[in-house]
Amino acid sequence: MSGAEVTKSNSQLIQKAMISRNYDRITSGECKVSSTFVPGNLNELLMCFDIANNLPEINAIQNAMRKKSGDMIQEAERSGHSEDVCTYVKADIGMMAKGNIAPNGKPFRDPDMLLLSYSGCFTFMKWFELLREQYKCPTVMLHVPYAADGQPTQNMRDYIVKQLKDEVIPTMEKVSGIKFDIDRLREYLRKSAIAENNLVWMLEQSKRRPSPIDCYFGGVYYMGPIFTAFRGTDEAIQYYDLLRLEIEDRIAKGLCAQTLDGDMPEEKYRLVVEGPPNWTSFREFWQMFAEAGAVVVASSYTKVGGVYDYDGFRHDPDHPLESLADYCLGVYTNRNLPTRVDMLARNLKEYDADGLLINSIKSCNSFSAGQLVMLREIEKLTGKPGAFIETDLVDPRYFSAANVKNRLESYFQMIDQKRRAGGFVTGIAAVGA
Amino acid sequence: MNPRSVHDIVAFCQELFDDLDFTRAREWKAAQPGRGVIGYMPVYVPREIIHAAGMLALGILGGGADLEVIHGDAYYQSYICRIPRSTLELAVTGRLDFVDGMMFPSTCDVIRNMSGIWKLMFKDKYVRYFDVPQNFKDEVGGVFYENELRELKEGLERISGRKITDEQLNQSIAIYNENRAWVNKVYDFRSSFPWKAPSAEVYLLMRAGMVLPPEEHTLLMQEYIAAAEAENRPMRDNCRVVLTGGFCEQPPLPLIKSLEISGCYIVDDDFMLVNRWIQGDVETTGDPLRNLSRAFLHHSGQTAAKYEPYMDVKGKYLLDIIRKRSADGVIFSAASFCDPALLDQPMMISRVEAQGIPYITLQYAENSGQMQPIREQSGTFADSIKLWSGV
Ligand code: SF4
Ligand code: SF4
């Protein structure tokens, strides 16, 4: 989630330093390392055992932004991995085949454990079974049931807590040689909640006109620390304090959202976006929005590592394991489609957006399967036009800039048309699916 | 009544297979007031509970090769497998209007998300996403699963309007135990005499189990084995293969036929795993939900949708089948865009390769039309196996 030199704000510089320190720690050999996933990321628990947190999804994103993922994916395909599956997995496997070099230029050490937080995505299970073949290290499954009826049940929560007690914590104790201390966990969770409060404040600032921030492209930077290896740390608290000050300053100055090329001069369109961004052409993709004067005021991707705004979840030091369970159950992709529809429809209304854009990811069934139905439902609920584009996460072969640009342009025209007519124009037919 | 010939039994199964209006299931429902039908998707649901609720468990395996998908494509992108779009096509065209509820097991994210689509689009239907544990300890995954089974039971009680007693459940468990025993007998019979039980026939016979009540399906299998045993059919010089990866979206029937025509007897497969997911009998005394749970945890099949906690056990299930069936090779088949099958495949291939077992891979969609390339590929595979085994 840290990109190239895209912004020079202090918070960005600090985040960059945090991320590189984490990579140095992971590659140093001085501590135990666990790999795990962004959704269902149990960072505070890992911290209780002084285990460093390595997130293969983030490594794939880093490689994509550095234009390295394409070769890695092809390398994985040459070794027998299907063209049809998640490109994060193949970027990761290809990276291993190409020397397993971390973004800090040093080789990754083999992880000491794989924490398979099976939350919100089927692919996770196979991904870590595949990595286990390579690393042959302890692999612990944390099965997070899908919140299929909208609300997690007590049975689901109890099951997760039991797995934490019976499987996850004992494995971490064994790997690290450190005894579990629940008070240490409470302290980290207390810190998580402080940063989470600021994070939610930040998310809600894009209700303003103009929005001082972009909550999709910019949002991935803002979410960085809390989604990765820093939730529960003092560094994250400081980062979000600083970010808040910066955003307050932007608000005071009446600035439009910050982009890669400075502040947007004018806010013409306000969008809600569903689905992850494309990473291989991240800059180009963002520019298409910025040049048109389009700001993203809310996105589902900024909820992929945890949902904090929709129903007010915070990590709770008084119920440490239960709150980790609730966190895992509540990540965006672990929520059922009606909830995802409700979340987005509410965003459209509460953030006074012009419409919903879905960036459908070719190789991600967790997000993508059902998005066309979601689009229809949300159009029906809000009366606002939707549009649909298709790209991929980290496979450059599936980002067609001309195509995406064309579709975005037609979409913006459609919004203009709707404004002129003062009525509703359906997006699907005009923009195509 | 004279026993039916193999031809007649297979024709009956073919008729059920071709009937995308599910007339038989509709008739079953209409025959008695208060009856209900619960549809389910692959891979596994505990049909015993549906049966005990006095309902018919109806396996929905997509629309097959012949269904023209008109609406389904508007709901699914081109890079998603075909089974959800053809299943949705069945629903939006009213072919599932008699179905009272649908169950979507935790097979993959596509089926998982279908549960939400159903909730959004068919608001009057009972929709159950059915999660199975990926932790196999009695006191952890077992407790979770028993509670899930209880919730399912209560949900079915609500829609059927009748309480399900333990006794009824135990009876249903016994009925499915018998059904599974006969499914296994059919598989054993085919493996022993593959020329007498061609795979396309066995396939249709198993498909019949998706739409018939289990008691009727059991009788049908008994009838088939008796008829097939009596029939004189020529033995071909085919090699013996296990086909794996087709546990969800089904290949078109001509594909199965093509494999045999080109020289491969399929001696085991993972189509319709629900028919034989539980290995052996489920206990029929005591707490039925606990018994179903224990059977799942400790005596169920292995497929890509299920986590394997131990790396050294990964693939053992397939290797055991290969050994048990004296197979010469493996065909890894997978529906295009099928995450579970395709992500699992490299691991399974490595196990098979380590044993020096020949294999090929092939991809299909339920409506794949071109069989010639597949016939050539499997023909070459069969020839090479014969060549090597002859050395
Ligand atoms: S399938 Fe989607 S959610 Fe799952 S790992 Fe890949 S990108 Fe992430
Ligand atoms: S074919 Fe594969 S990806 Fe598609 S629904 Fe079935 S299991 Fe899921």
Properties at a glance:
heterodimer; A: alpha/beta; Rossmann fold; 2 domains; four-stranded parallel β-sheet; 10 strands; disordered N terminus; disordered C terminus; B: 391 residues; alpha/beta; binds iron/sulfur cluster
Notes on the structure:
The complex is a heterodimer of chains A (433) and B (391). Chain A has 17 helices and ten strands. Chain A is of the alpha/beta class. Chain A has two domains: 10-181, 3-Layer(aba) Sandwich (Rossmann fold), CATH 3.40.50.11890; 186-420, Rossmann fold (3-Layer(aba) Sandwich). In chain A, the strands form three sheets. Chain A has a four-stranded parallel β-sheet with strand order 2-1-3-4, with helices on both faces. In chain A, α2 (43-48) links the parallel β1 and β2. In chain A, α1 runs antiparallel to α10 (234-253) and α11 runs parallel beside α16 (401-421). Mean pLDDT of chain A is 95; it is low at 1-6 and 425-433. With 391 residues, chain B is α/β, with parallel strands linked by helices. Helix content of chain B is 50%, strand content 11%. Chain B has 14 helices and eight strands. In chain B, strands 2-1-3-4 form a four-stranded parallel β-sheet, sandwiched between helices. A four-stranded parallel β-sheet of chain B has the order 6-5-7-8. In chain B, α7 packs parallel to α9. Chain B starts with 5 loop residues before the first helix and ends with a helix. The mean pLDDT of chain B is 97. At the A-B interface, α6, β4, α7, α13 and α14 of A face α5, α6 and α13 of B. The complex binds iron/sulfur cluster (SF4) (2 copies). One iron/sulfur cluster is lined by residues 86, 88, 121, 123, 333, 364, 366-367, 393 of chain A.
